[in-house]
Design brief:
single chain, mainly beta, about 0% helix, about 50% strand
Length: about 120
């Protein structure tokens, strides 16, 4: 049974940091592209960052470049998203997602999803 479980969300003030983690129960985890997506209230789901099985990372939002960092740890089937210099506009539910090999495409291209973790940034 495939499971993606996010943790690490919470409430912080602007300028603060949070580190999200996602534990994935996936057979052949090392063949999956892993990604972080977010959905703010009343908005669609946006890609934040993805990381290829070989470790190449891509940041899909210009607003997070230089502030967020995605990493993967194949030894224990996890990924993380280090978020620094958080802004109120980063407030959203953050989701971990997986698809095999290819990191291209939007949320609809990712097959497996976690339940999400809330991140709230106050000004």
């Amino acid at each position: 049974q495939v499971q993606l479980v996010e943790s690490g969300g919470g409430s912080v003030q602007a300028g603060g940091s949070l580190r999200l983690s996602c534990a994935a129960s996936l057979f052949r985890y090392d063949t999956y592209c892993m990604g972080w997506f977010r959905q703010a209230p009343g908005k669609g789901r946006d890609g934040v960052a993805t990381i290829h099985p070989f470790g190449r990372s891509t940041y899909n939002l210009d607003s997070v470049k230089g502030r967020f960092s995605i990493s993967r740890y194949n030894a224990n089937n996890t990924i993380s998203l280090q978020m620094n210099s958080l802004r109120p506009e980063d407030t959203a539910i953050y989701y971990c997602a997986a698809r095999q090999w290819d990191c291209s495409g939007g949320p609809e291209a990712f097959r497996y999803w976690g339940q999400g973790t809330q991140v709230t940034v106050s000004s």
